[in-house]
Amino acid sequence: MKPNLTFKTESFKVSDCGPVSSVPDLMGSSNVQNKTNFHLGEDEEIYEGYGKRDTAYPYREYNCYNRKLKDKDMKTAILENDYLKAVFLPEMGGRLWILLDKQTGENLLYTNDVIRPSNVAIRNAWVSGGVEWNISMIGHTPFTMDQIFTARLKDDNDNPILRMYEYERVRKVAYQMDFWLEEESRFLNCRMRIFNQTKEVVPMYWWSNMAVPEYEGGRVVVPAEEAYTNRIDDVYKVSIPYVEGVDVTKYKNIPCQVDYFFDIPKESPKYIANINKKGYGLLQMSTSRLQSRKLFSWGNNEASDNWQDFLTEDAGRYVEIQAGLGKTQYGCIPMAPNTAWEWLELYGPVQVAADACNAPYEQAVEEMSSVVRNHFKTIAPEQKLKDTKELAKKKGELLYQGSEYAAFENAVRSYKKEPVLSEHLDFSEISEEYKKLAAFLEDGVFPDYVSGDCPHDFILDETLHCRLAETIDGVNKNNWYAHYQLGLSFFEKEDFESAEKHFSISNSISENPWALHALAVIAVKNENFEQAVSYITLGYSYVKEDLSYLKETWKILLGCRSYDTLVSIYDALPKEAAEESRIRFGYLLARSRTGHAKEVLDCLEREKFVLDDLRECEETLGTVWSESYKRVYGEEGKIPSMYNFAAL
User: Number of folded domains in the chain?
Assistant: First the structure.
């Protein structure tokens, strides 16, 4: 059959992601890049820590979800030919959700049976399954739970192309993904393009994150003899397949949660495969720019079993195989000004000898590499990438909208007399709210709002910063919102003294919860915990119905060890807020540390407590149980299985 592209609405079992947070992420979350020690040679060039960010700012967190499932209609985009059926989710960052081999009836990807957010991504909420396209910052993309721009077009042979694209605010780059099938092709073509249209070198990151079934007797095959990996807080380079006596390519052998970033030689073909014990599975190949591959496993122990169960209902276990621009995810790589990076990825089925899973690893690699080289001769990915360069700049028909900010960035570019973002991409019309900011660039009058209303957006733009700074003592002098946004901009620049000044002015003009929150965060940074508690509790008093603000209040109160204050606020909460899992857990933690360990232990054992937004690597459930147990019984206790989420 001739390839076709259809757009549908299908029903999924979904937990509501909830509204975005009303306050910016200024506190940040812990991640491995913040505390890693490297033990590597001088020629590795993995750019340790380059481009690392501690917060999701200026993106708002999704932190108000729960685990209650409901049927929900969601958009799908489907590419299909005689051999493959690829299902994409435009409302989840363009994720490739299903890749069906129609010849065998097998889904080559791990597809979750539920879309239920968990706390893993840059903006908190994340879902396992399919192929996720991660750009710009270390971690899961800021668009993983967002609808992105979706368009369609055709090539010169009238074959349909699915295009998805966005504008990423931190690095200020537009990126696009063009997907298509050919009539006789057994591989999905994924043509990627990132365009740094700025005058600066920017840290760049891309990892295509493939969730694949954790087959019994399965194996990952990749043409590498070494890999980068971490143990606790230390990064080493190890030989593979055997690490500490374990063949880590046979992922069922891996005892604990771990990453392996495979160091593929430059002359080797770039691929990774996940095969079952019959030698069948998914093969991902690419052109040379996508230089690295990775295996992530939750491990095989009680804690990892809990994580696998936590992320799904009945879809079973999975591992992740990934493909990236850099050698590892411990840092970004520098992208030159006014530069476009393009590459082609190919996804499809592979069949090698049934004994490949049990053969010596070198033999399995040799056989898979032979298959890949034959595909490369037929497909010629590097040539195909060149041949489609003009196609990638062809305009498409916009079907679904993406972020509002892209159109505003074009307004900023117009103000600076710079070319628009990738002119072949339709970023739609500027919204009414952003028209106010665009007008500010011209007349200098910053928008003003009622101080109790949630801020519209957060500033991360040097042009806006400079324009606001030059007008703040004039026309915007008495605008609480202008001072608040300028304070945020200074905070992002780590000029905390100037930030505090403008937050204080904002609050003096019109006392507001947003400036009070920011002042509380600065007070925490200055270890002025009493002042932080005063600020955040006053701020909370203005927005008691705002769950995201309450969660931020909890984070600050716990960080300041102001347990009595937290308990007093909790006692006055309405039932729904008091029963929200993160709020309830913060209360239990505070009670445990104020002499009520027996009560907390009884609650944990009676309630079979589930923390809806449990953070990856967060061990606080087990910690609170252990602390309470020891206080009650005077000895160490074995953490109940359901509270064991220890990463290592």
Answer: 1
